[in-house]
Amino acid sequence: MKILAFETSCDDTSVAIFEDNNLIAMDTASQIKIHLATGGVVPEVAAREHANAIFQVLDNVLEKSSIGLNEIDYIGVTITPGLLPSLLTGTTVASSISQVLNIPIIPINHIQAHIFSNFLERQENEINFPLACLTVSGGHNEIYLMNDMWNTMKLGQTGDDAGGEVFDKVAKMMGLGYPGGPIISKLALEYKENGGTSIDLFPRVWLVKRDFEFSFSGLKSSVKREVDKRILEKGELSLDDKRQISFEFENAITEVLAWKLVNAAIQNNLKTVMLAGGVSANTKLRDEIDRLSKKHNLKFVYPKKLVYCMDNAAMIGILTYYKIKYNQFEQKIGVVKM
After folding, report:
1. Which CATH code fits 2-117+308-325?
2. Same fold? 2-117+308-325, 128-303
3. Facing residues of 144 across strands?
4. For domain 128-303, which architecture applies?
5. Most buried by CB count within 10 Å: which residue of 158, 205, 239, 279?
6. pTM
């Protein structure tokens, strides 16, 4: 079974080809440099860049895989959630190929695909259900209880900003550029390597420590006050200021994310925790979840490669494969089968 997969939900144009659950080839065109000027993604600009890139990316994947479009058995494409103009590029191209070549098309939920990125380069039996899964990126921040691949219940979510969104906004406060997550992590590591230690400069916003809801507006406001105070005192932020603020902020947000995930497993008598989404690439978050998982005798699962953490067509392809295998074409994430 050969699968062609498209991902265009935000600012990455990605196409992949699978043979069953094995990734044969993938190519991705990033728009990061284009969105640097605005400090974030402008939907209309993103859609235009998708349109400019998608056919070249598709050609690259077909060439890498030595597989022709007439050999494809199924097409998987992201349909939600995401930026509507961006999504339309992928769905339009996928639908056109589907209609011309009479290939079945499988609609894919972007968040569910991030979760299934954990099945890339793994066999099904390597992931033990039931489990608690944290999905965190620039657009979503939820904890799910997964009884199996398809029986999924949302336990909690953010009431305001998503984790990745806060990274970007804090980076913008300090004039660090876009995307903010990798830059903040780099500065935080430099602070630690230079002998810096935490003074808990920013609050850990637990809400109720035993529940699974998130709120990051208070943390964001606290960082803004600290940035403004230092600029008022010194005229500008020094590199040392940026390093310390990055370090303290990263500690504050990852401790909350990690504990809420692990606590979801503890409260529901689970043995496995899973991480997915763009922020799953964050080393500090991985380390904190790993530390807490070992403390509470939990297995910790996260994507095998950093590229699988980001928006990519491989996660679309792997979810398409399992949807076909288990005839799960209507299953929506967040819905529990009774």
Report:
1. 3.30.420.40
2. yes
3. 133, 154
4. 2-Layer Sandwich (3.30)
5. 279
6. 0.93
